[in-house]
Amino acid sequence: MKSSLTLWCAVGAALLIMGVGTIAADRDLTVSTKLIPYDETPATINSTGSGEFRARISGNGTTIDYEETFRDLSSTVTQSHIHFGRPALTGGVVLFLCYNPALITAPAGVPVPPICPTTSPATVTGTLTEANVIAVPAQGIDAGADGFAEMIKAIKNGATYVNVHSVLHPGGEIRGRLGGRNRKGDEEHNHDGDDGHDHGGHEGH
Question: How far apart are CA 152 and CA 76, in angstroms?
């Protein structure tokens, strides 16, 4: 009888541990970054522009809810994206955050992105899913659910960045590395002014 009780206690403990693990795996993840001109390449940009980006990745990996704010740019914003690229490198556009229909055409094959506000400061919000993924075959990013999972993995490993493009700086005016470091609990924070911040941006890449 005692051995049976011990066995059932062990089974219960194992199930409890499994349950906790499942809950932990399903927790949302929040990532944020500052957007600054000094992080642009191939040429560093001196601009009064700045911004912030914050996103919450759902625990089941199916949605990314985001809020982006930018201000004091040199000229009208044309578009903003999440790119697949490591620090100091340019990467392809995978997820549109907003676009200016008066200046550029909406991306093909994905839902029409939110419109970039022309006020300053400006804030844009939205939700990204697998439907929003623009494949980048040259970098191994697929379309659809596979590509969305690849981008979430890349965000967690610091291999993505947010870029805001403007009329005077079509390759990008403010940029910030997204995810991959300075983890604090559920949240990954990115801050400017250190060697871990990323650099670069290129319209359409």
Answer: 30
